[in-house]
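Please go through the sequence and fold tokens given here and tell me how the chain folds. Record follows.
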Amino acid sequence: MTGQPDHPPGPLWTGSAHNRGQWLLAGVGVACIVLGVELAVGSSWTAGTVAMAMAVVGCLAVGLLILYGTLAFVHVHVTVDAEAVEVRCGHVGLPRRRIRLARISAAEFLPSVTPQQWGGWGLRWRPERGMCVVIRRGEALELRLDDGKLFTVTVDDAENAVRVIRAHLRALAP
């Protein structure tokens, strides 16, 4: 035995999920930013400097928050390799979560998860349920961690991800 792992290099499973409806919200964010810029540049500022500055900053801040919140959660990419499950959101890959397989005690397939169950879209945390990345309604992968917490992610082909993770967990078991 050379000490080399007996698994192929690279990902064992990859999956993703998309929510094209989030692009509509991104448009709202852009509209808020455009309104803020228009107020700053095209207004006479006669209504009062403080009020106008608050309106401009408010429009820009709301627009940027909406834009980041929607673009960060317009899609998710999940990778399972020999060491960990990695979840990357949005175009930049943030937020990102890497969970080592050694920390996972169980993996479950959930046939139907909705944003309403978690309080909306995006990265959600509920004390009684754990953490979830909700990109769209539908199937999901649920991981029970060694500390008892849950991590759930809505992703296409979650059932196969569960099979791969369970097989790997059996191989890791003493």
